[in-house]
Design a protein that fits this description.
Length: 231
């Protein structure tokens, strides 16, 4: 089994050395960088199992890095490290797509346990498939099939369809979709969500033109969209 690859973005050398040494003793392969701009570039390049991200950084701060990663469709698990153990920071980070947070000061044993628990949880989640009606979405392979035929989706389209299928039967507002899939604050004048929905519908209908009583993605007038539950 390969060593878990960790990217640590932390500008305090003492903390970075302490965390790197402690995690290395526990079998992790740790890469470090000390500023936000480099941290974003390394995180966006991929190849890490988890990212440990300090909030206060020179260059981009941790929350800006997190927001840009999620907006780009990069789903690498992120644990925030922060000395500012305030509710507002935690809530903001989690809403932007962080998977967990650890407040300084912390023990490396706790951090290692959090990493392992997070990756166990996400591993179980990502190996599962979503089945709704004629559609099957495989989170691990990042593939979607309809009646056994593959549907080619962009990363954004895949993330949007997964969000809808995970919430099948419930109504998602355009604001919720925009924040979850694009990482943007709501702009009432944007039609990003509607355009992406139409592209997904066309791809599904190309394979399944009749469908089961129409498109599985329903428009809810004045609110947003709902993925129909299978009858």
């Amino acid at each position: 089994m390969h060593a878990l690859k960790v990217l640590l973005v932390e500008d305090e050398a003492r903390i970075a050395d302490f965390v790197r040494a402690g995690l290395a003793e526990r079998g992790f392969d740790v890469e470090t960088c000390s500023d936000g701009d480099t941290g974003y570039e390394r995180a966006a390049a991929g190849g890490h199992d988890v990212i440990l991200l300090d909030i206060m950084l020179p260059g981009r701060d941790g929350l800006a890095i997190l927001k840009e990663l999620r907006a780009a469709g990069i789903g690498t698990p992120v644990i925030l490290l922060t000395a500012r153990n305030e509710l507002g920071d935690r809530v903001t980070g989690l809403n932007l797509g962080a998977d967990d947070y650890v407040a300084k000061p912390f023990y490396v044993e706790e951090l290692a346990a959090r990493i392992n628990a997070l990756l166990r949880r996400l591993s179980g989640d990502r190996h599962s498939q979503l089945h709704v009606g004629t559609l099957v979405l495989d989170r691990l392979e990042r593939q979607v099939t309809c009646r056994g035929q593959a549907i080619e989706l962009t990363t954004r389209e895949f993330n949007l369809l997964e969000y809808l299928m995970r919430s099948a039967g419930g109504v998602l507002t355009r604001k919720q979709i925009l924040e979850h899939v694009w990482g943007y604050d709501f702009d009432p004048s944007t039609n990003l969500v509607d355009v992406c929905i139409q592209r997904i519908r066309r791809k599904i209908e190309f394979i399944d033109p009749a469908g089961d009583a129409g498109s599985p993605i329903e428009s809810v007038r004045g609110v947003g969209y709902r993925f129909r539950q299978a009858p």
